[in-house]
């Protein structure tokens, strides 16, 4: 799997278990890319839903994707603090300048005080039945919800105190470098 390079702009494609496209983020700047982790950032990027509707993201976000864990984490930088939207998903793959993953409906929302809530359990149950998620996938997803909650409680990965500041600073620096080239 070829990896993007720092400063490169990529798309993010979210799919459903049945292979249908769910959502596309038009442009995310890569801040770090290894075989296991891609960290990106975007702000006011165009998002296209599966039904063709479009919208712009409202605030700067740092995006964290892992090739071994079944979740990804979007850190939304708002005036009153950092909110995290965590998708329970397949690990990412990267090809054709796109980061791709399968969205498995369950989400964990984390608030600036690190309180959190599991969302969309009803949607998960509906899609699990409609798309016939294998039992092994169900078990993997439930285990990864527990891993994600553990990360939140332990302030690991994107939930660590210095994560947002260091990657936001990197995004600002790379954006300035690109602006000076244009």
Automatic annotation (TrEMBL):
Entry-linked Pfam families: DUF402 (PF04167)
Cofactor(s), names only, from the UniProt record: Mg(2+)
Entry annotation: catalytic residues: 23 (proton donor)
Superkingdom of source: Bacteria
EC category: hydrolase
UniProt-annotated binding residues for Mg(2+) 1: 87, 103, 107
Protein's UniProt keywords contain Metal-binding: yes
Enzyme Commission number: 3.6.1.15, 3.6.1.6
Protein name stated in the entry: Nucleoside triphosphate/diphosphate phosphatase
